[in-house]
Amino acid sequence: MVSAGAADPADLAKFRELQQLAYAAAQSVAQTLEPGVTEQQAARRVRAYLLDRGVQDWFHTPFAWFGERTAFRGFRTPLQFFPTRRRLTEGMPFILDCAPVREGYVADIGYAGCLGTNRLYEQLMGDLAEYRALILTRVNDRVPLRQIYRDVDALIARQGYDNRHRVYPGRVIAHQVSRVRSRLPKVVAAGFGIRSIQTLVGDLIVERMHHRSPLWADGELSNHPATPGLWAVEPHIGFRDVGVKFEEILVVPEVGRAYWLDDDLPHVRRWHRALAA
Known about the structure:
Number of helices: 7
CATH superfamily: Creatinase/methionine aminopeptidase superfamily
Order of helices and strands: HHEEEEHHHEEEEHEEEEEEH
CATH topology: Creatine Amidinohydrolase
Number of strands: 14
């Protein structure tokens, strides 16, 4: 596991560089989307963009969700997360999500957008800013992760939305990110890179020995403050047929205060522009 407190600044720079690349892929593909494009086509475009720029493996391959699928409506099995032939139409929200691996460094991002104008999407995206501030504050207050999850739920309820990250396997709002070091082949199975899964399983075993988990959910195993390291955090909120989220790395040092790895990200720039206006 990569401990943020012990990580060389060059390592953090590599994580940041890859996260920037993943967001650049999502933004670039978002600009190519037009009515009639399918989720499968969008996901393939994200994948091609990243492979062309040196990505060698995946924590998970790119996902794309359109319309009501951005809010995971009707999702019952893991297979429903995979891209479908659902076609984009004018005014429809979308989410692009990818988790590339390059030189062992990992990024896991989520980019919410909309084709054209959708007032509900705009409202949710604006309200999403509160979660980024809330999560960082509560982590720095050393509040147990389980309680922070419940604080997020309380904010969702106050805003009149519903929690969509609870639909993810394990109900996770975040997971730890470790540098991938494995001798296994670079093979993808069921959308996940087996080298990354091996690393995550190793982290699970180590953390369970300390009665902790690298998966942040609302259960007993998350009843501890954030473990030092890197966390890919993804609050996901929904209302009716619209869902929005961001996903980015939170750095929790061994000593000192936690911080977001990078503030120069599309959703953060959006919120800064809104404040300036």
